[in-house]
Amino acid sequence: MRSLPLGRSGLRVSALTLGTLGWGTDVEPETAREQLEAYVAGGGHTLDTAHGYGLGETEQIIGDLTREVVDRDDLTIITKAGISRTTGDRVVDTSRGTLMRQLDLSLERMRTSYVDLWLVHTWSDEPALEETLSALEWAVSTGRARYVGVSNYQGWQMTRAHALLQQARVSLVANEIEYSLLRREAEQEVCPAAAHLGVGLLAWSPLARGALTGKYRHNVPADSRAAQRPSLLEPYLDDHSRAVVEAVSTAADGLGVTPAEVALGWLTARPSVAAAVIGARTVTQLRSALKAVDLVVPDQVTQALDEVSG
């Protein structure tokens, strides 16, 4: 699998990064093990997780698997802090103290002394950005994080954070954002800013919560996430989205690959995108997505997809 530099930093990430959002909830530990085995066998080395995933169980599973399946030093681990759901509700807290506590707990769960990349999980108007970023400075200076960045920051927010960290001689190397053929808003502001600053982009939900696989083209399967949690998929099932999915499916038929491969191939070729964060409920789904790493989408197809999805 291709390993790409994250922006202008020395950190390299797998072009298809393994997302672990469902580990411990939708994905049982044994299935998580099988996914990691398949991912490593396919040449991947980058895991994406967060303090708040699975109420902490996700990072616990990673800690177990890095001792049993693959050596910690052979992995690039990304985690995030600033969001928790321990009360049942989504709580955003990007204060220095909370971020520091969450990182230490993440390290304890994963049984590691450091993470390769630590991100502030989301923007918050409170506290002041300077306080939030002071936690990133602390993480780098103490060796708890090799590199730091942000997640879900708009262009101006990322630019401000980058400038403040530069004053402390710390590089902001990444912004993890939603980006796909059905969600191209990042191209208005985030992508140009990232290219200018040398920040690498990690794209979450690159298949638009499964819509770009084509499985919702004709109906909604009873056992799918769209059927179980309709509100999650509604924004990806409107008329515009359906037109994009049809174009992706047509391209896939012509190239002899799956729609997921086309969508991922299109995305990983975008400027400033270092990796697409792929998640799966089954090993079969993961293996199918991993095939995209070898696909080069022809220019003519790329242009057609740009037009229909723009």
Automatic annotation (TrEMBL):
- The transmembrane segments are none
Provide GO CC annotations from the record: cytosol
Q: Which residues form the NADP-dependent oxidoreductase domain?
A: 16-308
Q: Which PROSITE patterns match?
A: ALDOKETO_REDUCTASE_2 (PS00062)
Alphabetized GO MF terms: oxidoreductase activity
Q: Signal sequence span per UniProt?
A: none
Record InterPro entries? AKR, AKR_Detox_Biosynth, Aldo/ket_reductase_CS, NAD(P)_OxRdtase_dom_sf, NADP_OxRdtase_dom
Short name of any one Pfam family annotated for the protein: Aldo_ket_red
Name of this chain's protein:
Aldo/keto reductase
